[in-house]
Design brief:
Helix content: 25-40%
Number of helices: 8
Strand order of the largest sheet: 3-2-1-4-5-9-8
Shape: globular
Structural class: alpha/beta
Strand content: 25-35%
Mean pLDDT: 89
Order of helices and strands: HHHEHEHEEHEEEHHEE
Low-confidence stretches: none
């Protein structure tokens, strides 16, 4: 899926159900509960960094794929400057509406396949969750490369991306013919096809194997400190969270 398609999907989602588009496991979010989930997530991340005995200068932080500001607002008490970046202008407009920290939080629309809006060695911490998984691998890898470029030496990146799709033991594929053409679809692809037809929007998942991610980071002068499993990819995907420095 190209970036302009991703942008279109999230612009639609931001208009129809912005909170449910960001966190799809609940379609009836209360705004306070929604931001509470963000605060709990960032607290866990900061505790993790402390438990790992990692030094972290708390000046500039990037929330990549910030949506309406769920995580950037939670990061604000820990850092001097918070930057939230998203491909959707509608999401950024909402992030500015929900911003409780004034100029301390800066929200930016970025529709490019790079982060040239930031100079080299700019951030002390970069965090991204449930964002890279929704774009083609080539875009995800290029953004990871950009993370390493804009990260200060000896600073930290933590990002999540699924490593593989988990097939259920009894899962069956649907095979059918249309105009003499054979279609062989997984249940997930069939569901996505239905969503596309009904709502005009679908958010796909794009896993990248763990070995490929680690090799790519090392090829771009980064170093993987830790990899742990989490549940952010949903029940159909093995989701991994990477802790990286350079």
């Amino acid at each position: 899926m190209k970036l302009d398609e991703i942008k279109k999907n999230f612009e639609i989602g931001a208009k129809e159900d912005p909170l449910g588009t960001v966190l799809s496991f609940n379609k009836k979010w209360n705004i306070d509960e929604f931001f509470d989930v963000g605060r709990a997530e960032i607290k866990e991340v900061m505790d993790y960094i402390k438990d790992m005995n990692l030094e972290l200068e708390k000046k500039k932080v990037l929330d990549f794929g910030c949506g309406v500001g769920r995580l950037s607002q939670a990061l604000a008490p820990f850092f001097e400057e918070v930057y939230g970046v998203d491909i959707s202008e509608n999401m950024i407009n909402l992030a500015n509406q929900y911003n409780k920290f004034g100029k301390k939080c800066k929200y930016i629309v970025n529709t490019e396949d790079n982060l040239k809006i930031f100079p080299d060695n700019f951030f002390d911490f970069i965090y991204s969750n449930i964002t890279l998984q929704h774009m083609d691998n080539k875009y995800a890898l290029n953004y990871i490369k950009e993370f390493l470029r804009i990260l200060k030496p000896k600073s930290l990146i933590i990002f999540q991306i699924p490593s593989r799709r988990i097939r259920k033991p009894n899962e069956k594929r649907i095979v059918f013919f249309i105009k003499n053409s054979l279609y062989n679809l997984s249940p997930e692809k069939l569901i996505n096809f239905y969503k596309k037809k009904k709502w005009g929007v679908v958010v796909n998942m794009h896993p990248i194997k763990k070995e490929k991610i680690i090799n790519f980071i090392e090829e771009n002068n980064g170093r993987v400190l830790d990899v742990i499993k989490n549940n952010w990819g949903g029940e159909r995907y093995e989701s991994l969270r990477y802790c990286v420095t350079k």
